[in-house]
Amino acid sequence: MLHALPAQVARPAYDRTQLQPGIVHIGPGAFHRAHQAAFIDTLLHDDPRWAITAIALRSRDTTDTLRAQDGLFTLKTLGPGSWTRVIGAIRDAFSAQDDPSGALTALGAPATRLITLTITEKGYCLDGNGQLDLSHPDIVHDIARPDAPRSAIGWLVAGLARRKAAGTPPPVVMSCDNLTDNGSRLREAVVRLARQSDTGLAGWIERHTLFPRTMVDSITPASDPAFLDALESELGTRDDAAVCREVFTSWVIENLDCEPVAALGRAGAVLTSDVRGHALAKLRVLNGAHSALAWMGLALGYQRVSEAISDDWLGARIAEMIGQEILPGLAPVQGLDPDAYAQGVLARFANPAISHKLSQIAWDSSQKLPVRLLGTVADNLQAGRPVVHLARAAAAWMRFVVRAAREGSALTDPLQETLLVAGRDCTGDPAGDTARFLEMEQVFPPGLARNPDFRSALSRGYGDILKLERGLRP
Ligand code: CS2
């Protein structure tokens, strides 16, 4: 594949035959390939000991494609300053369902010094309080069969159990998902699951395993057929594992004292003690606004992020939501100017070179709403700050569900069934419909759901979205 590519396409300048496995990555979807794999590719030019073994827990499609291409794939950036580069960081890729013993071997191997994860919000199997949900079907399964896990948390426990049994030090385990306090959440989930079967193991994990917090950022639309076809013309060859993203990329990692974190720092990650602040700002400003834009933009009939943010009315409301309701609640973060950050985010959304579907951002909305918007809502209510825009965004999510239920279309969401039942029950009455959704404890913490100010803001916001659906601006 490599020798036939056009000259302007950069490719690994290191000898891939000399690579040694150092990282196991769980969930090699587009975001991993566009983000962490690119950083690791940079690192491999200086240090061959960090090649990635990519393990998929569910679908084998990506790993099969990657294997057929010897792990190579193309990363194309979009917009000003863009470039195209072949990434060579993935040395092995397979599905844990096809090869469970291979997965355990990789996770348990002493050479694996870092395990990274991009499994999306739902992959953590957390309850409304952010704790591992012991009644989640995959967790129930993993408690009964710790030797043959299904969830990512179960695989981590199984891999760490091997390390303990062999007397080898544990790897560093790093969540690269958009969760509040992702490192701590992951550690607590892993320890909680381990405790169900082996308290000694749980204690060992708590004492010896590092789970650094991270903030990951790069807008990465799904690789649709139009992108893959255009890239095929550019490359002269088909790459079904290719990914695209904006030029901007950022990985901020808690500067815990360990070899993998130091190595990622050499590869361009920013190491700092205040990841919490960076991650919260990113989650609430970028991801919060992204989700709000998706639900409201879909109500207005838009399909893509750049179109929705260019709608004068909607663009102004999103900017107000950030400026009036999100930034005032964020604690100062060293090196981050909140207003400049917000402006930068809005400019990134407007990038016309990126065809980012609002419907993609709306996947798994029931998991995203609590971490992206409801934390800000709770803080604002407590501090006496407004929640008008935030509540309108939450109401837009409810209407998104109602429309899907009416049209009989599927929702990509782990709560799909519950949501569609609720959506079908809705009559168009703002107070009644929003109350129906507020009953869902998996989404709305009961204290927040009872708050009268939030309830009335939601009803008003719901009325606004009904107008938007009719093409009117409230
Ligand atoms: C988006 C994110 O799909 C989504 O929900 O909000 O994937 C977003 O593009 C990234 O977090 C940007 O870093």
Automatic annotation (TrEMBL):
Lineage: Bacteria, Pseudomonadati, Pseudomonadota, Alphaproteobacteria, Maricaulales
Domain Mannitol dehydrogenase N-terminal: 22-255
Region forming the signal peptide: none
Name of this protein: Mannitol 2-dehydrogenase
Domain Mannitol dehydrogenase C-terminal: 275-462
Pfam family, one: Mannitol_dh
Assigned keywords, A-Z: Oxidoreductase
Gene3D superfamilies with a match to the protein in the record: N-(1-d-carboxylethyl)-l-norvaline Dehydrogenase, domain 2 (1.10.1040.10), NAD(P)-binding Rossmann-like Domain (3.40.50.720)
Organism: Glycocaulis albus
PANTHER family recorded: MANNITOL DEHYDROGENASE 2-RELATED, MANNITOL DEHYDROGENASE DSF1-RELATED
Keyword Nucleotidyltransferase: no
Record flagged with keyword Oxidoreductase: yes
